[in-house]
Design a protein that fits this description.
A four-stranded antiparallel beta sheet has the order 1-28-27-26, with no helix packed on it. The chain is built from ten helices and 28 strands. By secondary structure, the chain is an alpha+beta fold. The N terminus and C terminus are likely disordered. InterPro entries: Cdc20/Fizzy (IPR033010), WD40_CDC20-Fz (IPR056150), WD40_repeat_CS (IPR019775), WD40_rpt (IPR001680). This is CDC20/Fizzy WD40 domain-containing protein.
């Protein structure tokens, strides 16, 4: 079966390797190596004289196994007795000249020298040089950072500035005002409600939040109430196919709801009795905006007029004509002494209760003015936002009739609302970004940008405690956001004569 009977092995191949090893070994190991070599030569000579007998292998299969085992034991095994010493000699030959290669500035030379000596210590058990006796390993972490050592290397002036900044940071972290202005706002809504058939119309105002913590939402011809106390939804009224709801607003006490319709009528409902108590006529077209102050209700219509109603006498006490197109925004000032109106004619007008002509006219906007807000923190501060062609928020002083500031938001401004607790305000936007932005005033810095709606954010209302806002959009959803902090109890005026809550 086997064609080759004799196995001839060239000893010179092994002799070269043995000579290579012996050349690198020192004199102590040379004698041991020669003895090993002589033994190896004798074994190889015996192996060459061994003959394979085919007949014996066929008749005695066990001999084949024995021959195989003997062949395997005659393999070359390298000598390792002098490896450590040979590495030391090789390291000495490749040693870097310190005078030529390590002439560098700074700590780099010391670091290279130190690691070289540590390498020698690990390999050859040699003592470390005196230059690195002070090299101190403080931990086994490779990226250990010693801040004390770093601070010692700093300039004295820089170190003083660093210490001052650390003291300032500690003092600011204990400051309540600092915590307010550096708070974290949750960018996700805390609650989402479906609002099917919520109209996607820029000129309407279809949600409002009462002082009794009840949210009213107009869906086509119906009005629904959602209680923030028990999370209950109630169908409040339904005009069926006779009319469509275009606007609504709560009375300051939160017990009555005014509803403006497509036909031009205004209907007043009692929230406790769940029934209509009066109907106010006067407009010839849809009523898209309403504002309530005390016992006076103000309405703006597509017929370009503004009407004032005295709810105690159930009659019109004033009809104001100053806009040339639809009135789409109305807001009373905090003192309820004057109100502002915005129209599709790009005008912002300020009216005083009892006058028939506007006391101030602002013409800076280049698109419809629906978004209007008065600041509760500064008397006479009025802000307004323009539509798609304008995209700007402008701030006016109604006492001096001058424009204080403005900012280009980059998208349609649909609503504006000031915080009750801190000097910030909210703006909601339409084309083309559909975002909700919280701003600081007067710096006009963005505190946070909230994105969630997939359509124009047309409607905005605030909870009675001033912490939460709700937004409605053309995507037929209502989203609730926790934005503003709680009002400090120390800021509430509580005395024996003045109650803690005024209704």
């Amino acid at each position: 079966m086997l064609q080759q009977k004799n196995a001839e092995i060239d000893v010179s191949q092994f002799e070269d390797k043995l000579l290579y090893i012996s050349s690198k070994c020192n004199k102590e190991n040379a004698l041991n190596t020669q003895i090993k070599q002589n033994d190896m030569n004798e074994q190889l000579k015996n192996l060459n004289t061994f003959e394979f007998n085919e007949a014996n292998i066929e008749e005695k299969p066990k001999d084949k196994q024995i021959v195989t085992l003997q062949a395997k034991t005659c393999r070359y095994i390298p000598l390792r007795s002098g490896i450590k010493q040979s590495l030391f000699e090789d390291y000495q030959y490749r040693q870097i000249d310190e005078n030529t290669e390590l002439k560098k500035k700074g700590d780099l030379q010391i670091d290279q020298l130190g690691f070289k000596e540590i390498y020698k210590y690990q390999l050859f058990d040699q003592q470390l040089d005196n230059q690195i006796h002070n090299f101190n390993w403080k931990s086994n972490n490779l990226f250990h950072y010693d801040i004390k050592k770093q601070k010692k290397q700093l300039n004295s002036s820089l170190l003083l500035t660093y210490n001052n900044l650390m003291e300032l940071q500690e003092s600011l972290q204990n400051d309540s005002n600092y915590k307010q202005h550096h708070r974290k706002i949750n960018i996700n809504p805390i609650k989402v409600l479906d609002a099917p058939q919520l109209q996607d119309d820029f000129y309407l105002n279809l949600i409002d939040w009462s002082s009794q913590n009840i949210l009213s939402v107009a869906l086509q011809s119906s009005v629904y109430l959602w209680s923030a106390i028990n999370n209950k939804v109630t169908k409040f009224c339904d005009f069926r196919n006779t009319d469509i709801v275009c606007s609504l607003t709560w009375a300051p006490q939160g017990n009555q709801l005014a509803i403006g319709t497509e036909s031009g009528s205004i209907q007043i409902y009692d929230q406790q009795k769940m029934k209509r108590i009066s109907i106010l006529q006067g407009h010839t077209s849809r009523v898209g905006s309403l504002a309530w102050a005390g016992q006076t209700l103000c309405s703006g219509s597509k017929d370009k007029s503004i009407q004032l109603y005295d709810l105690r006498q159930q009659k019109i006490i004033g009809k104001l004509e100053g806009h040339k197109q639809e009135v789409c925004g109305l807001k009373w000032s905090p003192d309820e002494y004057q109100f502002a109106s915005g129209g599709n004619d790009n005008k912002l007008l300020v009216w005083r209760l009892g006058s028939q002509v506007p006391i101030i006219k602002f013409n800076q906007h280049q698109a419809a003015v629906k978004a209007i807000a008065w600041s509760p923190h500064k008397h006479g501060l009025l802000c307004s936002g323009g539509g798609t062609a304008d995209r700007a928020i402008r701030f006016f002083n109604t006492s001096t009739t001058e424009q204080l500031d403005w900012i280009d938001t980059g998208s349609q401004v649909c609503n504006l609302l000031f915080s009750k607790t801190i000097n910030e305000f909210i703006s909601t936007h339409g084309y083309s970004m559909n975002q909700i932005i919280c701003w600081k005033y007067p710096t006009l810095e963005k505190v946070s940008t909230l994105i969630g709606h997939t359509s124009r954010v047309l409607f905005l209302a605030m909870s009675p405690d001033g912490e939460t806002i709700v937004t409605g959009a053309g995507d037929e959803t209502l989203r609730f956001w926790n934005i503003f902090p709680k009002k400090e109890e120390s800021q509430l005026s509580q005395t024996l004569l003045i109650p803690s809550k005024i209704r």
